[in-house]
Amino acid sequence: CTVNVGAKKGIHVNAQPAPTIKSETEGAELSIASLPKNGDYLDLGKPIEIRCKVKGFSPGIHTVRFVMRFTFCSDTQGWCSMGTDSSSIEIRVKK
Is the pLDDT of residue 2 over 70? Predict the structure, then answer.
């Protein structure tokens, strides 16, 4: 799975502490496989690769909801804050 992350101009997402992901869908377990880095920041022009494990899903397409937590900073104002973003991905489960 891959997740594309966007940000507003003048805002960057720190690579450390690393962003985390948590599934909100029962039976689905998500973890971040790789983060596209640009120095100490995430390269938001590239997708984040996510590992997906599912248990108890029938074959077919399923929607998996998740929450990402990350630290973002203002380039011009010098402040940083913790952020969360909820979203979903569709996965295809094969037999």
Answer: no
